[in-house]
Write a structure and sequence with these properties.
It is elongated, with a radius of gyration of 26 Å. The longest helix has 32 residues. It is mainly alpha-helical and 400 residues long. It starts with a strand and ends in an 11-residue tail after the last helix. Helix 1 crosses helix 8, helix 8 runs antiparallel to helix 12 and helix 10 crosses helix 12. It is built from 14 helices and six strands.
Amino acid sequence: METLALDGTSLKCSDLIKVYKDCDGKVKVVVQDSAKEKIHRAREGVEEKIKSGETVYGTNTDVSALKSAPPPGSGAQAAGYAGRWGKYVEHYDKQVCRAAWVILLNGFARGSTVVTWSLVKQIIRWVNMAWNKKNKIHDLVPNIEKGASVGFGDVIAPTVLHVETLAKYQIVSEDKAVKREYEFASGEVLALLSNNCFTLAEAVVTVSNIIETMEIIEVATALDIEAEEANTFIISKEAEEVAQWETKKKVIERLRKLLRGSQLFHKAPSSIHPYVSLRASTDILGTAWEALENTKQVLEDLINSHQGNPVVVGPWNSDVSETKIGPVAQFDTTRLFWSLSSLQQAMGCLVVSLGQRTLYRINTDGFNIPQFLTRRMLIFQEASLRDCMVSSQVLSPALC
């Protein structure tokens, strides 16, 4: 069994993918002792503020337009007050739900929220047991509808998840949960729903899938070079030396390794210049990889950050000397949206290039290929170009 220890600062996209792919209980999630201490100290700071009469948003007040009102009641009623979701057909992959809760736990591990260690322990039990398909508790994991949240934060998806789990059942042993409502401490309901853990989890999975696709596209590019009997200078050490940026250099090196042993390096090319979409393939691939790397870095910044509102800051998690609690908008996804938009544009250009290369091969060697197939490729290329050009549309970031 592999153990993933959360500390709020070092979670990697690759760690989340291991959690996402694990359906057999082979990846155990824990919170480091140092993070546990931070959670305790943050909650103690919150309790002290409340006792002193200070107003703490969402903890001794209601939220949103009702922020001046008293807090909602505890338990399922409190958990469900934001859970008025619509009936959508599409559901999240249940493994995305597990990854989402791991992101949430990692945020809690920073000691910057109002949650108690008791709640964290209960979520850890769910994460480690309910997504193991061999465990009876797996049957309690609900279907979570996609597209129900329309605000800055995910809100509805995490709310439904904890209303259907924490607010109804408590796990009491390795394979047993009983119908018993978890008693949420003040402020914990807001901490569970005011975040973007689902958007981030889905984005991490999407980026992982794109990386696998990119690796296949590189192999396809090497095969295109072979099929064209292209001038190998485009992937030569000399071309690598003059490449404008590091990511492009790495693409050239990988393509050269893929073609190691090819006869292309020992005979004259079919043309002094490969056609443009092949000659520029290292630029287009390099751009797509760079966009992927940038998006991955943004995701790792966000999955290791405080999620939601308010934030608790003190000497246990910063250089400040006293506890401060204040409003932030760290459920905002602007940075994630623009990084994914950049990735969308880069992938759109790559798809256009692939379409052009396919058309070239069809028009050069495919005189017996039915015309409707070549027309389908033109439509594919046109659609890809449109997709590349309209990336500024306001879409759910994780679906870009």
